[in-house]
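REQUEST ID: PR-0412
SUBMITTED BY: lab tech R.K.
PRIORITY: routine
TASK: structure prediction, single protein chain
INPUT:
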Amino acid sequence: MAMENGCWKLDEDMKALYVDLEEDTEDEKKDKDYSHWDQLPDILLEEVFTYLNMRERYYASLVCRNWYRAFKLPYVWSTFTLEDTTLTRGKYNYYSGWQYVLDHMRTSNCLNKVGKNFKCLVFEPMMNFYNLYEFMNMISWYSERHALMEDTSEIGVGTNIRRLKFTFPCNMANRDNPETMRLFGTGGKLLEALKRLMKNLENIKSLELIDLMLDSKEAIHLMDDLCSSCTQTLSKLVLINTTRFHCPLLHVGVFLNLETLVISPQNLHEDVVELLGYTQLRHLHILQNRYSPRELVGNLPKNASWKKMKMNNPKLKVHFEIESKKSSDIVLAFDAHMHSQIPVHSIVLDNPNTQIPTSIILSHAMYFGSTMRIYALKGLTRYYLPKKFSKRIDETLVKFCKLCPNLHTLMIRDKISTATLLEIVSSAKSLRRLYVRRNVVIKKCDADWLICGGWSVEHHKWIKDNCHSYEKTENEVSRILGYRWYMLSEKEFADQSITLHL
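STATUS: complete
OUTPUT:
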């Protein structure tokens, strides 16, 4: 049967089906108005294809010749993400049933045709360790074979890779339930394959190793291997939960061109901080996610080491990022005698189940007000938001802004009033980015502000005239900030990203 007149489409199960089409007559062809999607320029096609996964790219390439040609354009394959079902085939196991196993033939064809275009290699958390192990070894084999060639001027697989992100699925229980965690670390053959891959990526500039949860000896050996191959090339290094327990990683102080370091608190030490003072590091991110030990502040180096670091590297900025899902967690309760010398540039708290006490918010401003540029309370709250002024954080936020003269970005997830918004933008002279949730903003001017605000008659009249309407409030905030400002919807607030490197 001839299949010349037809097309491909996706059915309800997202499977490709070939559909026969009836041939149009000559008159019908003349009267038809065809689209010009096939004539999109390459620069737009490349951008569109980068948003598609591998299966979707394949289906898009079947639309027309131009899209088939765009399928192989270099920029389309600049980022390659490996997931459980990427480049796999179904295989029946007598004990486990049908499973997705890596198709070596398909993987080899993919690497031969587009592997040289990879610039960013991302390994998402995968439960099929065999597929992960085999793919890393195949990339390494292609890189090693290219290194043995007499003519190495030709670009090979792995030659262009500048960024590697590896995330290990350390939680073998339900990943979305913070109360049920079973944490395991990587190691053995999988760790050997990762080391081999990193050794063969000679031009890598950004390396992200997340949730490896190694023991101390394995972590030290991993960093030894990393130092032997990437000391001069790395400009960004991410080491989140490299170990599960306290283990200082002094190796981070020997990377000559490192500009950004993201590290968990259990891998910091006074000696590590002092070493960073002798590097070119500009941004130190101290990050605690849901799998990190809870005692963050207890693991932080003391004031003496931070003083030495600032003397040798005064341009270094420290960023605290906290991700927590438990309502019982205590977040960033600093001690003035031990941590007030930290050059904190930003604090981002993504803990929607925990209400931050006003005393902790004010302590952040008192200890780090002179250097604080960004303060963000992220996430959609999962706790009760009171309406009474004395139980809200309005007054605390205004005091915070007055104590931080250089504050540039402020994100608020709690319930506040429109009058508080106007008071914040009029008090924070350096504020340029303000993010609030429209659904929790109250249209009112609380009488308590007349007692604690110390407003003049003109200031009170200005707030009173503009606080009873969302539109008027947004217009006044826009006028002060210098651009069109508006309150965010729940989805916009949840998806909002914060720029930390100002």
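NOTES: The CA atoms of residues 7 and 14 lie 15 Å apart.
REVIEWED BY: pending
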